Task: structure prediction
Amino acid sequence: RVIEIAVRGPERIRRALLGGYPLLYIVSWEEGRVERAIAALAQKFYDKPVPFAVWSCVDGVVAGTERWPDTADPLKALDAILATPGPGFFLMKDLTAFLAKPEVVRRLRDAYRALKGKGRFVVLVSPRLIIPEDLKKEIHILDYDLPDESEILFLLGHLGKRYFGEKGLPDADAKRLAMALRGLTQDEAEHVVSRVFSRRPIFDDQAYFEVLAEKQQATRKDGVLEFVPPRFSLADVGGLENLKEWLVKRQKLFTKEALDAGLPVPKGILLMGVSGCGKSLSVKAISALWNLPLFRLDMNLVFGTDNPEQTFQRALHTVESLSPALLWIDEIEMAITGGREAGGGDPALGRIFSTFLTWMQEKQGLVFVAATANRIHLLPAEIIRKGRFDQVFFLDLPNENERKAIFNVHLKKVGVDSSLFDVVFLAKATKGFVGSEIEAAVQAAAVEAFNQGRKLNEDDMSKMLTATVPLSRTMDEQIKAIKSWAHDRAMPASKP
Result:
């Protein structure tokens, strides 16, 4: 079974071998998967099976159950490989750690000439690409991608019978699960399927989101990406009907059916506007609506590293490897300008901004970028133009209808029946309030009523609202400036 699964992956390796390259360098975290792929090629590349051996700095050269004596040293291992007659495949796992030694580089260059045309191949595997200048013309580099959807479906065909009976998973469920498992190694995918379904062999939304949460492991290792669990839905967002309609229309564009049909994949949206009007909440709701994992990129942590540019690029690469996924960049104006008004002048900012623009334009992975901005006048024109984001939405102060919807949402969250309240009166009384201020007032009133041992009533709400000074009153000029700036630059998120 292992060889059968592995043989679906090594087509790119096979094409490189057909080119006659005697030295291959495969960049991959999946040593085991690469080893299985080379073992499969050793069985089928020629008319008959040929020898296959693996070298490590601990065990030396091991061919099947036979360990070649005195080959833990890389030079002696290469000498033994060169002395072996006939075709064969030799996978070297730890050789990159010795490439700083000139004698190892010399022997590899000798091996290139000695093995050329002999049908014998030396394959290096490492998650890092380290090639000395002297070897760059002799080594052929190959990126061994993580399992694609067809490979994962093939794996699920076997695992499905183990956990769901002889019929396995229905095709629709298998395709949905395969999309969720993209970005994981073959071993990681097998582990998570075993962990999730060994306890409860039912594939439902809970199991699906549990699989998505496994991607949190990959982001925790980077340190600048945070997995955000799908705790909110569009029902938790009061108002913003234009934004909701836009999101619902694109809900199925990341499904296999839409991808197979050749429909365009959305690149991203930019949500700009007044602080507290639901930008972050809307981003979180996309995750549940589209059934995609959400990762938040913390730019403060990026700039806190020794090499911000490299850290930023690695974070983008990580998210792409975990696609399909949502990437949330909060307060993007600070991330790409450093607060230019406050004197931000770090030259790394410009290079990171340039990297981000190019990536947004050219990215191939199924990554949807959801960016939010408060100080929108700091945003450069390049970030707003079409081609980077599919749409730019402006979130204004909620209108009366939206304030009624926001009250209904938050009164329900504190466990009271909104029909017992004059929501129309509350909406009129909160003109100029943002959604977060209404939420805070409802929660504070609920706490006050609980401390007095009774249920929340309308008087509690009125007292709390009277004591609240809305942001629109204290920052009137700034909010007017934001509205003026966004008037002809963005689509309103709310309906009139």
